[in-house]
Write a structure and sequence with these properties.
This protein is of the alpha/beta class. It is 34% helix and 21% strand. It has two domains: 113 residues, Cobalt-precorrin-4 Transmethylase, domain 1, CATH 3.40.1010; 112 residues, Methyltransferase, Cobalt-precorrin-4 Transmethylase, Domain 2 (2-Layer Sandwich). The strands form two sheets. Strands 3-2-4-1-5 form a five-stranded parallel β-sheet. A five-stranded mixed β-sheet has the order 6-7-10-8-9, sandwiched between helices. InterPro entries: 4pyrrol_Methylase_sf, 4pyrrole_Mease_sub1, 4pyrrole_Mease_sub2, rRNA_ssu_MeTfrase_I.
Length: 232
């Protein structure tokens, strides 16, 4: 089986926020596909401090990976070895490259087991007050200034035309620049939700306000995991 194991959004999240089943699935195998080895070891230790780190067999699965790079792991799965799949944060396969192994598992009649856990994208949406029936996750916006401005204007037009909520992210160290761009490009009355440090017990920040508010009250989001939602 291939277990899709959720990671925390922040290490400060209380353990009781998570389903006990997560620990059971991690204890079930020593074999894992991981986006980042250091992060994965911390996540495993968070849920199962008693599990020996030396026993872990970790296979790197990042945005550069292809299924052909994972031949050894695939052979083990065909022989009956269970694997876990860990993202760096939240649910695997959302804003995460893990889907290539899920696709492979389906093609090879290997059972895929999704485990409930947090998704910053969904938590931001349901906390925004925007349309949760129709929405689009746009991933990361372009780095190029002109292209990003064009994309932001496009997302605003989509919201106004369709009412569909538009969700996107930025690399944490560029969050403040993203807020600056949003304030410069969007209509002052456009509605923006900023959701930062989701699931942090004391520093969680989620607020939906018009752009004219954010222009005068810019939060400092430098290196803080954040999700942005445009809606109406």
């Amino acid at each position: 089986m291939l277990f899709l194991i959720p990671a925390y959004l922040t290490e400060q999240t209380p353990l009781e926020y998570f389903a006990p089943a997560i620990k059971s699935y991690i204890l079930n195998t020593d074999y894992f596909f991981v986006e980042n080895e250091k992060t994965a070891r911390r996540v495993i230790k968070f849920f199962c401090p008693e599990k020996p780190q030396s026993a872990l067999k970790l296979y790197l699965l990042d945005k550069y990976s292809e299924t052909s790079d994972l031949a050894e792991a695939q052979d083990l799965m065909k022989q009956g070895q269970d694997f876990g799949l860990l993202s760096e944060a939240g649910l695997p396969c959302i804003a995460d490259p893990g889907n290539i192994m899920v696709k492979w598992a389906h093609k090879n009649q290997i059972r895929v087991v999704p485990i409930s856990g947090p998704s910053s994208i969904i938590l931001a949406l349901i906390s925004s007050g925007f349309n949760g029936q129709n929405f689009t996750f746009n991933g990361y916006l372009p780095i190029d200034k002109a292209e990003r401005k064009k994309k932001i204007k496009h997302l605003e037009e989509v919201v106004q035309r369709t009412g569909y909520s538009q969700i996107f992210m930025e690399t944490p160290y560029r969050n403040n620049a993203m807020v600056e761009d949003l304030c410069k490009v969007l209509n002052p009355n456009a509605q923006l939700c900023i959701a930062a440090n989701i699931n942090h017990p004391s520093d969680e920040f989620i607020s939906t306000q018009p752009i004219k508010f954010w222009a005068k009250n810019k939060p400092d989001l430098h290196k803080i995991p954040s999700v942005f939602v445009l809606g109406r």
